[in-house]
Write a structure and sequence with these properties.
alpha/beta; globular; binds iron/sulfur cluster; OB fold (Dihydrolipoamide Acetyltransferase, E2P); single chain; five-stranded mixed beta barrel; 16 strands; Transcription Regulator spoIIAA; 406 residues; three-stranded parallel β-sheet; binds S-adenosyl-L-homocysteine
Length: 406
């Protein structure tokens, strides 16, 4: 989400006559986009700000602006703490640099990449007990369907071949709009766009994902067989304390519905380790759950209390830091093994790769299941679909060669 917003902000600034300086040292104007979803992210913002304050001492004309979720409602105390910052813009409300008013949904013109992001819904109504997002990004606001389709068309005209629809909870898309369009409706419209090859969306919520969406994934040929379905914990006790609104039985039901309806679907998930009250036995349940479910990838984070959230107010952060990082490493090691086994199974098979560019001296792209794939070839494959026969596999990427028989 932040990467997409940063890209949009820089595209807009360039359109208004700014040009990239390359480094903050050389820039006349620095706009810092911030994330505070975890304490570690927030610390990085604070360190970056301290460095910018230091630069400003020797270059007092430098203008510094801060946006993203670090900007809380209490701008008075932010101003006091960072007096060298000239402007504070709340997340999704950075100004239009051409001085038109900022649109309510915070959606700005995008720069087209072969794979391009489109935000479809801002904010979140869920208030999971650990999460700061609803406090900093506000309640859900969907973008009108027609506006999204028009933006997708423009991006495709400018060279996009894949669209990734973004939202904290894409399954909530449209409930606040006239006619209540849903994500499936949006996918149907986008599936008709000539020149567009692939559609993905991020992130789903197990409490809200519908059978209708699963059927759309299966029937719409441009929608890739891949999604992120964050489970967060492997025990009903912790899920209830997190206020996630589903139990493991429901989650497993969804996973099996997905796997039967959408053959070969790749499912990734998010896990928080060290949530308050997660003793060793409960953590073991998470490991067991991951072992049994066999996700394609797991994004794992150590719990950190976030200001203003229910968990920070009501629950003691009772898992020691060393224990949290031990658990994180265990999840990572387990997942590396599972991912390695899954990747090895792909050796010898053919995958369709949308080529995004060159990396490490090879063509690089992703499979429909979102696996990074590398291959060598002397033609120009940029923006094209390649059929690649997989020859080597590691946990996180695949290497192969162009398959001419395809
Ligand atoms: N909307 C998505 C995720 C949003 S936040 C969902 O419902 O899952 C992205 C990820 O950051 C979360 O999946 C969670 O794993 C992590 N995260 C959020 N708050 C956190 C906290 N207080 N401590 C540690 N990780 C956190
Ligand atoms: Fe945060 Fe929960 Fe909303 Fe995801 S669904 S953004 S975890 S409150």
């Amino acid at each position: 989400m932040n990467r997409a917003e940063s890209e949009r902000l820089s595209a807009m600034m360039e359109k208004c006559g700014f040009s990239p300086a390359g480094t903050p040292e050389k820039a006349d104007f620095v706009l810092l986009n911030s994330c505070v979803v975890r304490a570690s992210a927030e610390n990085r913002v604070v360190n970056k700000l301290a460095y910018l304050g230091h630069l400003k001492k020797s270059d007092p004309e430098k203008v510094i602006a801060l946006t993203g979720c670090f900007v809380s409602d209490d701008t008075a105390s932010l101003k006091k703490r960072f007096p060298f910052v000239n402007y504070f813009f709340p997340a999704g409300h950075a100004p239009r640099f051409d001085e038109a008013p900022a649109p309510e949904t915070g959606c700005l013109p995008a720069r087209a990449g072969i794979s391009s992001f489109i935000p479809i819904i801002q904010g979140c109504n869920n208030f999971c007990s650990y999460c700061i997002v609803p406090y900093r990004r506000g309640r859900e606001v969907s973008r009108p369907l027609a506006e999204i389709v028009t933006e997708a068309k423009t991006l495709v005209e400018r060279g996009a071949r894949e669209i990734i629809l973004l939202g904290q909870n894409v399954d909530s898309y449209g409930h606040d709009l006239d006619g209540i369009p849903d994500l499936s409706r949006l996918l149907e419209e986008l599936n008709r766009l000539d020149g567009l090859e692939r559609i993905r969306f991020l992130t789903n919520h197990p409490k809200d994902m519908s059978s209708r969406l699963i059927r759309s994934m299966a029937s719409l040929e441009k929608v890739c067989e891949q999604l992120n379905l964050p489970v967060q914990a492997g025990s009903d006790k912790i899920l209830a304390a997190m206020g996630r609104g589903y139990n493991l039985a429901r989650f497993m039901e969804l996973v099996s519905e997905l796997r039967t309806t959408v053959p070969g679907v790749a499912i990734t998930t998010d896990i928080i380790v060290g949530f308050p009250g997660e003793d060793e036995a409960l953590f073991e349940k998470t490991l067991k759950f991951l072992e049994n479910t066999r996700f394609d990838a797991v994004h794992v984070a150590m719990y950190s209390p976030r200001p203003g959230t229910r968990a920070a107010r009501e629950l003691a952060d009772d898992v020691p830091a060393a224990e949290k990082s031990g658990r994180l490493k265990m999840v990572e090691a387990l997942q590396a093994r599972i991912a390695m086994e899954a990747s090895q199974n792909l050796v010898g098979s053919r995958v369709e790769v949308l080529v995004e560019g060159r990396k490490k001296g090879k063509w690089y792209g992703r499979s429909r299941s979102d696996k990074p794939v590398f291959f060598e070839h002397n033609e120009n494959w940029l923006g094209k679909l390649a059929s690649v026969k997989i020859e080597h596999a590691s946990s996180w990427s695949l290497v192969g060669s162009i398959d001419n028989e395809y």
